[in-house]
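Sample entry (310 residues):
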Amino acid sequence: MPTFAFRAFCPLLAAVLVFGGFGQSLSRAGQINWGSPAFATNQLSGGAEWGGDFVFELGVFDAGFTPTSANVTEWADRWNVADRSEYNATFKLFTGSFSVISNAAPFSAGARGYIWGYRSVAGGGEWILVTDPAWLWPGNSPLDPPVDWGAASASAVVGAVNPGGGVTLRTASVGSAALPSLIYAVWRTQVFSLDEQGDALVSGLGADPDKDGRTNAMEFALGSNPKIADPPPSFVAAGGPPGARYLQVSAAKPAGRAAFFWAEESEGLAGWIRASENVIVFEDSLTQLTARLPFGGKSRRFLRLSADVF
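Predicted structure, serialized as tokens:
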């Protein structure tokens, strides 16, 4: 069972010239900047520092439901996630920026916002949930100023904020309460038999039992079946002048999975660069990633989809 982020990539590459002009990125609306301070001391309930197996989610609970330490077993069923961030154990922080483009329920303007952090191992184990009376979900007007929601200045429903001793955030043990998002260790038990779970060549993160070029980790991230061969991912072509040639990768993200996607580029397949200034991200939401890579006069460029899986 992984207690860390496992990196996966799709080996089916876009290596053909595509023509077209660049579109425009989504217009900004109400914006929530959320996260925690860098280089902070953040601890588990037992005193050990957090590792890279923590995931943080920004969202709201169903209208009329108030989370408390007494009803943690109900949280997952009442939770609605808007944005997700992985914990950076090197810089000791998590951070995200979310644009509110709709106020459809349950993300109604004025709804109480929360940040839910959890250790992404089977059974959950360690959680922290923070909020603040001022964390009211903004409207979707681009005229609304951005809001900043910092976990270090919030109040904890479960866990602790600034409990003393130089600690900024501390999680609490919640036993086997359900996680808000599906993690690989749980998914593995859902799609593989007991015998298959005991064979790393079949159910391991890097295994590819259906021989379609996608590892189990990428099958999990994309929501596909590891036992049925899948077609290549969607690389989209569009017409336009030769001076605006680009590669594009577009992937649908299944809801409720602890996976983080990005695009990587390469000029010769020997080395890959993540999220360089050359890659133009047109959409990176909970449901879709669309990125483009202009050729910029170079004869060969490659683009691939990668993901961290928890």
